[in-house]
Model the fold of this input.
Amino acid sequence: MSAPAFIDQQLLGYLDEALAIEEMAAVENALRGSESLRLRLAALSARRDQGLHSVGEIWRRSRLTCPSRAELGAFLLGTLARQRGDYLEFHLRTIGCRYCNANLADLERSAAADADAPRRRARFFQSSAGRLRKDG
Done:
């Protein structure tokens, strides 16, 4: 049984942790069983680190298509223009950008925690009612 064939872009995506989870696992499993694949990955990594970059690599590494955190927040609130919101929906759902999805999940957790803060504050004051001293 032969190891699956991977193109250079997949291996570079593996190095950048930019592949889907299933594809990352497939590359990792193949690397464990193939010395030639490990050597090829090391050569790709060395070539990339020497500064031999393509426009596509620079584009992906700089995440030029990724929205800012503020823009993701506006997307979460539903305040983006329709076309930009459609693009972000495509970027997050169809392309499945792991970095932007993680950033969006963090914003969602922050929003949920902020929404819970007034209730926590109210419970704190209710639990301390009658326990505070009255001076004066």
Q: What stands out?
A: The first helix runs from residue 8 to 15. The helical segments are 8-15, 21-33, 35-49, 55-61, 69-77, 82-95, 98-128. The two ends are 86 Å apart (CA to CA). The CA atoms of residues 71 and 102 lie 14 Å apart.
